[in-house]
Amino acid sequence: MEEKPQIGYSKKVMDHFLNPRNVGEVEDADGIGIVGNPVCGDLMQVSIRVEDEIITEIKFKTFGCGSAIATASMVTELAEGKSLDEALEITRQDVADELEGLPPIKMHCSNLAADALHKAIEDYRQKQAKKAES
Amino acid sequence: MVYLDHASSRPVDPRVLVVAGRYLREDFGNPSTLYSRGLTARTALEEARVKVARLIGAETPSCIVFTATATEANNLALVGGALRNRKMGTHVVTSAIDHISVINPMKQLQKQGFELSIAPVNSYGIIDLDALGRIVRADTVLSSINYANDEIGTIEPIHEISEIVHENGNYLHVNATAAAGTIPIDVQAEGIDLLTLSSNELYGPRGAAALYIKKGVRLQPVLPGGGQERGLRSGTENIFSVAAMGEAARLAAEEMHHESRRLTALRDALIREILAIEDAYLTGHPAQRLPNHASFRFGRIEGESILLNLDTVHDIQVATGSACTSQTLEPSHVLLAIGLKHEEAHGSVVMTLGRSNTDADIPVVVDAVEKTVQRLRAITAL
After folding, report:
1. Could you say which of B72, B224, B256, B376 would form a disulfide bridge with B67 (CB–CB 3.0 to 4.6 Å)?
2. What is d(CA B75, CA B222) in angstroms, rounded to the nearest whole number?
3. Is A43 within 8 Å of A64 (Cβ atoms)?
4. Which of B305, B311, B330, B336 to mutate to test the interface with A (most CBs of A within 10 A)?
5. CATH number of B14-251: 3.40.640.10, 3.40.50.20, 3.50.50.60, 1.10.10.10?
6. Does B323 contact chain A (CB < 8 Å)?
């Protein structure tokens, strides 16, 4: 079959861009991850609530382009209800695949959501370690 | 639907389409042939030359050479002009906000041994005339400055620029693609040696553009071939596009005064209302700007998101200079040249009005922009 070139964003990207899931900030979050840089046009924050090693609540905030918003929204959907170890397995490629692909140029610059999630988990674990110490 | 991206593409005026259709269907002859169908085409070509010459105040129609695109006209003027007149010097000048189709031919000249200087602009995008005066020198063979900038709308003081360029240097090329047909241009009164204009910006079809070449200015062809257009642009003439461009130029000349007054009122209303939104700023000059041009930046949100939201939710088409829509992921060089930081340039939105826009569009657009900004600010991490 002839491969159809994808023009612009996929329907799934547009859906998450127009109706982003889990926007905002988890109140008294257990872990927060911030990645990106406004100079590059992307700044993403993911905050999580963790109960018994499970992500029970996850929210995001993003300054960025359409795919930055869509990937952040998607990663919250993928991670919600997962264990921390499972969530750490979520890759940038997984996010892109779930969104039915991203334009090649967007794969690196605005596909930061998985990184922000991983950072939030790291942040949670560091906080837990500190608690254990004291 | 409200279309606000006339800087990037315009619909063909229905009156122009009639002319284009005639030369596509009936009078399709090759103007280089001697039978009547060819002579009809030749007549159309020369009539178009007259109409384009009139629009910009050229001394004679023979000063107009038709090309396929404005990019090609810029290349003919710059590469053809610099190479042909190399004896005058090997220094060339453009501005920090000129179009990529001027900057890249200039860079090509650099590779061929020319020295390139870039004139800076102030925060409104007006050429720094003192700096230009220091840059242009006796061996400056060509200086190229845009008449008006398509991203920020600022109109340059071309007459003053011409005086500076001619005081020490040689030829002035003006890329008037964004300005021609929208504001009056008089190449003779303003002291312009070479000027580029494009058919589509006049509501003509793509496939035609023109270079004005002042009498006495010599160029080297960049496209050798059968010697059409006085040997300066070979290739069988694209009669339907050229004839249509001529008609578009005639209509623009006739309607410009009325139309630019109408668009200025729409533009000013749009700017006034949008600047009332929190953390919204105008880019470009507030008064010395194209009648159809309103450009902004919004703090804390990104231009591609704004563009997508306006299109998919509100059916309004705009442009942005944000890095996120460019192939290089670099913000527009124009926005950086007027002093915006990278994160500020990301919030750029450019609205260019045209013949189809009416008073009724303004509240629709303002409401949609307000909602879009509100929605994206609710998501933003800044």
Report:
1. B72
2. 8
3. yes
4. B305
5. 3.40.640.10
6. yes
